[in-house]
Design brief:
Helix content is 19%, strand content 43%. The protein has six helices and 26 strands. Helix 1 packs antiparallel against helix 2 and helix 5 packs antiparallel against helix 6. It is elongated and about 75 Å long.
Length: 368
């Protein structure tokens, strides 16, 4: 391998790719990235066995080749280089990286030891609108589980519904559902790891010039996303997703129109006092006002009063403050509707003017 390329392009690619490299890999080779020099440029590949990411960079290739090298060491060294041309040369079992007087010799591992990547076929899927896709994902990703104890809940369920696609996430305590007017037939009924989709969202934000995302299947159990010069492949989760339709409340006895920023500030304040009491924050709805409160014996207590338009019986309900903050921090509009039926049934949060999105949080049972 013998290739020359720009430092800023190499550093940008390594910044992206190292997000996929596991901090505690199952096997040592996963600490490495694979560098493949072809006639067109350099391909950099990383994998954690669930998700594989490949980035292409243009460069002047004098000799093709492929080798593995420590992801962390190469990334950290390249970040120290000036914005000049970087020369990468493979010599026996060393990778020599040099630029403007800087030089490093890194030990290498044979590319044959790196896990093989599935091939991506885009024949059954075209490009979809990046803004819509990322918008839908941003509305649901935060609600997916991070605990591997229930693997299905670490994924996002995709459901094709006519000319709409529904994205669903739940961790068993809350649920987010978003419908978007677009068709992604290749993903219908798929359960995609939320971590991989979070990376797609990050890549989309970094590749601002790209207006579309290509999606295709890579075999029966993998899906691929192409954003600019980056291809991300991830395994689909195999199993039965919970029947989320069953837990969506169909009726309510109280509905409130709430200003988001006011409630966000109130919950942040209450969360300080809720930390030592299982993060429990209470919402009391009565006579066109909401009182947000929390208390812990060793810390103290507080309450914040907000005005709101309330219809129905009113009442009190308690939530985990972290779940409320996650929803309020990710919700994009200025106002939302909150619906409840007593203190023991789920609270529903939805936009004022459309039914394309809803968020549900299970209440916390508290004594009065």
């Amino acid at each position: 391998m013998n290739i020359k390329l720009l430092q800023e392009n190499l550093q940008k690619a390594l910044t992206h790719i190292t997000r996929v490299v596991p901090s505690k890999p199952q096997i040592p080779i996963l600490q490495n990235i694979k560098l493949t020099a072809t006639k067109e440029g350099l391909e950099i590949t990383a994998t954690n066995m669930e998700t594989t990411e490949t980035i292409w960079i243009g460069g002047k290739v004098e000799k093709e080749g492929s080798v593995c090298v420590s992801a962390r060491v190469l990334f950290e060294f390249v970040a120290t280089l000036p914005p000049e041309t970087v020369h990468i040369l493979q010599k026996e079992e060393q990778l020599i990286v040099s630029s403007a007087g800087f030089e490093a010799q890194l030990p290498t591992v044979s590319a044959s030891e790196f896990p093989p990547s599935p091939s991506l076929s885009l024949k059954d899927a075209g490009s979809i609108d990046k803004e819509k896709f990322v918008g839908a994902l941003s509305n649901v990703l935060f609600a997916a589980a991070t605990d591997e104890g229930r693997p299905m809940l670490t994924g996002i369920k995709v459901v094709e519904d006519g000319d709409q696609t529904m994205f669903v996430a739940t961790d068993g305590y809350r649920l987010s559902l978003c419908r978007m007017a677009m068709s992604v037939k290749s993903l219908s009924q798929a359960i995609i790891p939320a971590r991989a989709l979070s990376e797609v969202v990050k890549l989309s934000g970094e590749e601002k010039a790209e207006e579309g995302i290509k999606i295709g299947l890579a075999g029966e159990h993998q899906v691929g996303f192409v954003v600019g010069e980056t291809t991300l492949l991830t395994r689909l989760l195999d199993g039965e997703y919970p029947n989320f339709e069953r837990i969506i409340p169909k009726t309510f006895t109280t509905r409130a129109l709430i200003e988001k920023e006011g409630l966000l500030r109130a919950v942040r304040s209450a969360a300080i006092f809720a930390r030592d009491n299982a993060n429990i924050v209470r919402l009391s709805l009565d006579k066109q006002k909401i009182v947000v409160s929390a208390n812990a014996a060793q810390v103290g207590k507080n309450s914040i009063e907000l005005s709101a338009k309330i219809d129905g019986d009113g009442g009190e309900i308690a939530f985990n403050s972290r779940f409320l903050l996650d929803f309020l921090s990710n919700y994009q509009e200025d106002e939302f509707l909150f619906e409840m039926t007593g203190s023991l049934n789920s609270g529903v949060f939805k936009p004022v003017k459309d039914d394309s999105y809803l968020h549900i949080i299970m209440p916390v049972r508290v004594t009065s």
